[in-house]
Amino acid sequence: MIAAAMNPIQAQTPQTADKIIAIVGKNRIILSSELEQQAQQAQAQQTNGVALNDSMRCLLLQEMIMGKMLVEQAERDSLLVSPEEVDGQLENRIRYFIRLYGSKDKLESMTGKTVYQMKEDNRDLIKEQMMAEKVKSKLLEHVRVTPAEVQAFYNKIPKDSLPFFPATVEVGQIVMDPPTNPELDAYAREKLADIRKQIVVDGKSFETMVGIYTDDPGSRDNGGMYKDVTRDGGFAPEFVSAAFKLQNGEISPIIKTKFGYHIIQMVQRKGEQVDLRHILIMPKHTDADYKLALNKLDSIRALIIAGKMTFSEAVGKYSTDEASKMTGGMITDERSGASQLEVDQLDPQLALMTDSLKQGAISQPQQYKTPQGEISTRIVLMKSRTAPHKANLLDDYSKIQNVAKAQKEQERLDAWITERLPSYYLKIDPDYNSCPGLRKWSLATAQK
Hints:
Blueprint: E1 20-24, E2 28-31, H1 32-44, H2 54-76, H3 83-101, H4 104-111, H5 115-140, H6 147-156, E3 164-165, E4 168-176, H7 182-200, H8 206-213, E5 225-229, H9 237-243, E6 255-257, E7 260-270, E8 273-281, H10 287-305, H11 311-318, H12 322-325, E9 341-342, H13 348-354, E10 366-369, E11 375-386, E12 389-390, H14 393-420, E13 426-428, H15 436-446
Antiparallel strand pairs: 1-2, 1-13, 3-12, 4-9, 4-11, 5-8, 6-7, 7-8, 10-11
Helix pairs in contact: 2-5, 3-4, 3-5, 6-14
């Protein structure tokens, strides 16, 4: 595996005396501080409490050197990446960390750096990782494992060494936002029109009005501010389109999105990024609105149970959650895309539901609170469930298959390294001669 991806917390890692511990090619260097950062990150990800020893540091350094070799090979093969590709990857990773920490402000507070600084600090790292991944993908594109190979791999594992897996579930959902009463929808728009008049005509502070009126919990406490907004930054398209038409200080007309009604104040334009404030007024829903949604979900549930429609067909036709339509309604791990999840990966509301649902069952319609704090309705499918158990081919075939494939891929990479080493300049600090793999690499390059 190539050395770790962007970690925004690295910015606060204390620095000790630094030196070059490896050189690959003409000018690709690895510093002792970089190895220490990787070691600290690996230690933080340990769940078994085992301290990181010298052997593990040797393996980390091998991964880092391999990464540099792959980048060098990418340049030889002209497998380059564009600035736009790097920007897109940086944006995706920053969005992940913002979701992880809860808000952009919390992320910046934890790192002591702005999002812009984090992007600039990690730009070269991400570029090299993307180049290395292109070479790696090309090398491994034809690596496959057959069922017989999976069986053979499993049989080689000593029975007392088989891993213990916690309980897992595969669950899907059909979400149905309640319809909006036309009168309450009109009232929400009129309310925002009056707020806008108080700001534009009467001269009241936009930031103050945010604190009094906005329905956006994510920006209420910082005056409605969102910084470094991009055109593809995850905001509603109508919102972004209106924002990028504004000049500094200008306030937008009323914009409608799926979340409700907005007005936007442009704070600062910065090329393809903007800082802005907004006020959101969401139309209220009545008990009758929720009852309509619950009754509709009950009818959909009956159609699925009767076999007149599959669950995934119902998701595509009825779900108001656009993200789940991409997975047939299945709830997946955000990073890996896996649908088989440990129960503690589910939100508490959903985890509680799984206790009473049998495999293959669909829940009764119910209200729930979305991650954005809104109240919506849904039905939930319990597609599969596994109890805590030792690994076996029946319940864990896909996991064992992935490990078997990873081993085969590593063997392919090792063979590539052995084949290509003589064509690379590689110098490793003598302090690491005790690492068997690194010593072997040094000898291979010395024999050119």
